[in-house]
Amino acid sequence: MGKNKFLVVIIGFITVTAFWMYWVSTNPSGTESALIRFLSIDELRAETNHGRVKLGGNVADESIQINQNDLLEATFILSQGEATLPVRYYGTRPDLFKDGAEVIVEGAMEGEVFQAEVLQTKCASRYEGDLRDVQTENIEEM
Fold it and tell me: Which are the contacts of 88, defined by CB distance < 8 A and separation ≥ 6?
């Protein structure tokens, strides 16, 4: 009798796992895909039906424009090598958001402008050294 219960539990677990994998891969809600693709600017422009995607690159120098009537609205140019793309973001910007910063944006194209719903900056490498130094310092000496 003990082996039958164990077998039923294993079969149930496998069935639930298979169903979950199917659901995640197909996302039956149909609102958006289960996984957000990370594309280059050139790949984004080459597709006609791209949906929600992530892009990475640098903020082009002197391209940041903050709406003075609504300080949460910002536009800037995202650059990847020679390719550039205008981006509009509405929300609180990260502290490290500035000219030349490495950023990742998530959103979708609307016309010729990428409408970003998420804006993340990558940590500047200059802070990594500071973090290592802090760990080795004796707090009592400060």
Answer: 73, 74, 75, 113, 114, 115, 116
| Nearest 10 degrees: Cα torsion 90, 92, 95, 101 | -20
CA angle 103, 108, 109 (to 5 degrees): 105
Q: Which residues contact 34 (CB under 8 A, 6 or more apart)?
A: 24, 25, 26, 27
Task: State in words which class domain 37-127 has.
Answer: mainly beta
pLDDT winner (highest mean) among 25-29, 38-42, 58-62: 58-62
**How far is 18 from 1, CA to CA, in rounded Å?**
26
Span 59-68, pLDDT tens digits: 999 999 999 9
**Reported pTM:** 0.64
Find all residues with CB under 8 Å of 45, minimum gap 6, and list them.
83, 85
- If one counts every other C-beta atom within 10 angstroms of the C-beta of residue 76, the result is 26
